Amino acid sequence: MKGQILFVIWRESIEALLLIGIIYAWIKQHIDSRNGLRYLWGGVVIGISCSILLALLIYGVFNVLNDTGQSLFMIFMELSACVLIVQMVYWMNSHSHSMKSDIVSGLAQKTEKRNWWGVTFIVAIAIAREGSEIVVFLSGFIMSLNANNAVDFFAEVAGGIVIAALTLYLFSLINHHVPWRVFFNVTGVLLLFLAVSLLLKGAEESINLLLEYDYSIPDFLYLPAWNTTGFIDDSGIVGNLLNAFFGYRSQPIWLSVIVFVSYWVVIAALFVRRKKHA
After folding, report:
1. How many domains does the chain contain in total?
2. Which of 215, 186, 207 is nearest to 259 (CA)?
3. Reported pTM
4. Using CA atoms, how far apart are residues 231 and 239, in angstroms rounded to an integer?
5. Which domain holds residue 94?
6. Where is the chain membrane-spanning (predicted)?
7. pLDDT tens digit sequence for 239-278
8. Model confidence over 43-58: pLDDT tens digits?
């Protein structure tokens, strides 16, 4: 859905660009900065290449499967993306306040003996991690790419990267007013809603697949819980936006309601537990 791609690229690109910016600034202060920067950009290229290879692998696997295989693969990727988003937000929530110092500390250890390959490894792994998250988050779009939607897809990808670079620049100017921790917390909440949206899609596709193969399922699970179409229709502009980012359904089935509530109960318990042990 339009907007969802741009948001994911924007949010994840900021993390990658922030990482590169921190390492770049650190290397520029090093006596051997010219040599170090070559290893930095080498790590960026390796990380991006790994992400592209993963995207091609997902696209290739999807296109050799039959209809049932494609449905199962889509469900698996949606559920995996949901788990990965939650894990990433949890990690960022725990480490955003010390991310810069952790990166610089790790780089210092790698370059005590001019081990620039260590810098390449750190950057490549970090960029590949961010890139793989983007690929998994957008796997549904990647698997449905064709001549009709490819231009829009790549336009949103490019737009997300450009907006991320602009956001990073603006925050570098006003970060004493709006701390990065606040930024990551706010966008983290939006990502948690995106995760539940993917989880709902996976759950709904799962029950549809089971019904298609005549599995016995309690009737109430696929019956509509309520109807708010007259208030906000999820096929309209506003409803479609709420559907993409917050998992809104104007006519949700009971399975979706149960999954939605259960998800937030688990998320609340997870983050409350982390806060207690912080």
Report:
1. 1
2. 207
3. 0.67
4. 9
5. 4-276
6. 6-27, 39-59, 71-91, 116-141, 153-171, 183-200, 253-272
7. 876 876 788 899 999 999 999 999 999 999 998 887 776 5
8. 888 888 888 888 888 7
